Amino acid sequence: MDFESLRKIQEDSKRVDALYQIMEENSRLNRSKAARVEFFTTTTYVEKFLKEGDRILDLGAGAGEYSLYFARKGYEVSSVELASANIEAFQKKITKEDKIHLIHGNALDLSCFEDNSFDIVLLFGPLYHLSKEEDRQRCIAEAKRVLKPSGTIFIAFILNDMVILTEFYYRPEFFLENSYDHETFKVEDFPFIFFTLEQTREMLHNAGIQILTEVASDGVSELLEDKINAMDDESYKQYLKYHLYCCEKPEMLGRSNHLLTIGKK
Length: 265
What we know:
Layout: H1 3-7, H2 12-22, H3 33-49, E1 55-59, H4 65-71, E2 76-81, H5 84-93, E3 100-104, E4 118-123, H6 133-146, E5 147-158, H7 160-170, H8 197-206, E6 210-216, H9 225-229, H10 233-246, E7 258-264
Parallel strand pairs: 1-2, 1-4, 2-3, 4-5
Antiparallel strand pairs: 5-7, 6-7
């Protein structure tokens, strides 16, 4: 499987499964200090809302980085993942002590869970891949359904306007390419689906999600990857502190590859 073959797959679920045969998700959040910024920020915010005994649902759990982190802190975690390669990588990490219920499934159908079952729902992967608005709304509706009335939902998006700079970082000729609209600057939705900040807000408004907080979860860490990775531990600690200081500022929200939205139903 290569990216040209991937383009020919029309069904979202089949394309996701094929994508993660190509892309290596297992180390995405832990391969370096720069890569760890997103994980650190996300877990910091989730832990602000966690209470002892809470049940967590991790939708689009990938190779299990978040699920394992919270399970090893004593929480009961249910994890749903679509891609076979990610399921295989995840299963290899689970020990008998981990309180994780791993399901090879689709976030569009959570019928295996009852209404109002979870205190925390992590919706970190599915909206990267759902190409149709009706499917995105269905996904959020299912996540809402299984969330307790008092619960909190955490939703991740990939931001169109920062992706442009990230692509330019890797490919200096990017602005001459036809992989984006040269007037609107909308990036081609491949291999992921990209949104502007306003589009994420509109989507969640239409889904009946009350937005509590928005967070630039990785900020400019990918653009500064070499410099961040070269930091000593004390410098890196201070960089993370700086990142938390500014990641909620309105002027920073669009300057991040990933946006974390925290909400209630």
